[in-house]
Design brief:
Number of helices: 6
Radius of gyration: 19 Å
Keywords: Hydrolase
Order of helices and strands: HEEEEHHEEEHHH
Enzyme class: hydrolase
Number of strands: 7
CATH topology of the largest domain: Zincin-like
Largest sheet: 4 strands, mixed
EC number: 3.4.24.-
Protein name: M48 family metallopeptidase
Strand order of the largest sheet: 1-2-4-3
Strand content: 15-25%
CATH superfamily of the largest domain: Metalloproteases ("zincins"), catalytic domain
GO molecular function: hydrolase activity
Number of domains: 2
């Protein structure tokens, strides 16, 4: 499911979401912090719970006003993971992944990148994707499974571009200019990496 079409709040049931809408908007502090495509809104009416939802090109994370900056960053990572899991409940198989790569190559690279194989792997925990130009093979980390589709498409395009240009010089990045969500996808992945480096917090509790 595309990232922009998720209507509910992560960590809440539809009934609780409806109840929240009936109560009206929560009281918020004047400042809302924004990092890349993530906006954090603090509420004095929220004591223990954290929730998140998509709003256009942004992810809105609602947290208690008393939270520290460090806690805020930890919870942003937790809620991004929750939303990503909700948005992509179906794992794309290797065959569908190869079809997706062929479509993206045709749409953004003029069909010039033609991988011999595209598959998921479970041994890439420090890289989102890799390719071997000599073999024409592309491998994507299983950690991408469950992330928004535009993020998966960006990583696929990134590796497809490497079949044409090996390094990360200006010529390589020009190949990705046609994809409109490059910066958004990079920001999302950078946020996931930053969250992974923070100490783990318990899962959010519902009201």
């Amino acid at each position: 499911m595309p990232a922009d079409s998720s209507p509910g709040l992560a960590g809440e049931t539809p009934a609780r979401s409806a109840s929240r809408r009936q109560r009206g908007p929560a009281t918020r502090q004047p400042r809302a912090s924004v990092t890349s495509a993530v906006e954090v809104r603090r509420s004095t009416r929220r004591n223990r719970t954290v929730s998140a939802y998509r709003e256009g090109d942004r992810t809105i994370v609602l947290i208690p006003a008393r939270m520290s900056e460090a806690e805020e960053q930890r919870w942003v990572g937790v809620m991004l993971d929750k939303l990503a899991a909700q948005e992509s409940r179906r794992v794309i198989g290797d065959s569908a992944l190869a079809d997706r790569a062929e479509r993206l190559s045709g749409q953004y690279l003029g069909g010039r990148a033609r991988p011999a194989s595209v598959r998921w792997v479970t041994n890439q925990n420090t890289r989102w994707g890799s390719c071997t130009p000599a073999e024409g093979s592309i491998r994507l980390s299983h950690r991408l499974q469950g992330m928004p589709e535009y993020v998966l498409d960006y990583v696929l395009l990134h590796e497809l571009a490497h079949l044409l240009v090996p390094g990360h010089g200006p010529r390589f990045w020009r190949l990705l200019e046609a994809y409109p969500r490059t910066e958004r996808a990079r920001g999302y992945l950078e946020g996931v990496v930053a969250a992974d480096r923070l100490p783990h917090l318990p899962a959010a509790r519902e009201e």
